[in-house]
Design a protein that fits this description.
Layout (H helix, E strand, L loop, with lengths): L9 H6 L1 H24 L11 H11 L2 H18 L5 E5 L2 H11 L9 H18 L5 E5 L9 H27 L1
Parallel strand pairs: 1-2
């Protein structure tokens, strides 16, 4: 589970995104990298509720050109070291619903988030997913209409879908190795 509160800059980012974007984005990227590195350990396996693609999408939206160049250098190194995920679970949810959920959780620093920012972030994330489509298995889930966070039956269905996608990916990998 991502612990966003360990990022010392996230509160400052939402108060003044233009001023605090660089340190926020780089520190989230490195926090996620470290967490995946620790979680995978000797097994090479981890499950995360964040994606480096989302870090990249945020950077595209929030960083200026020179900052983005520096961020991309770190991002490239991190991706090379970690490799590609075995499965990317892409949760689809419209910006209006995202904003409603953000408002409902009542985190004071997030009060400044607006619909246009979420729409731009969703477009950027879609671009990042499209860039890896075909090279990383992707399971898309409509999280706007499937409330797996509050409905145990839906949570079990989603878990079965993820497990099934991993099984297919594992079988495909075994078939390739047997050649």
């Amino acid at each position: 589970m991502e612990n966003f509160r360990h990022n010392p800059y996230w509160r400052a980012f939402y108060l003044d995104p233009a001023h605090f974007a660089f340190e926020t984005e780089v520190s989230f990227l490195l926090q996620h990298y470290h967490q995946l590195k620790v979680e995978t350990g000797d097994t090479g396996l981890a499950t995360a509720d964040f994606s480096l693609l989302l870090d990249r999408a945020y950077a595209d939206v929030t960083l200026r050109s020179g900052q983005l160049v520096a961020f991309n250098a770190v991002y490239t190194q991190v991706r090379e070291e970690l490799g590609d995920p075995r499965l990317l679970v892409c949760l689809r949810c419209g910006a209006t619903e995202q904003l409603r959920r953000i408002r409902r959780r009542r985190r004071r620093p997030e009060r400044g988030i607006h619909l246009e920012f979420l729409e731009e972030l969703n477009r950027s994330l879609e671009k990042q997913v499209d860039l890896v489509r075909g090279s990383i298995p992707i399971l898309e889930i409509d999280s706007e209409h499937r409330d797996f966070a509050h409905d145990d039956g839906t949570a079990n269905e989603v878990l079965q879908e993820i497990t099934g996608a991993l099984d297919v990916q594992r079988q495909t990998q075994a078939d390739v190795q047997s050649w």
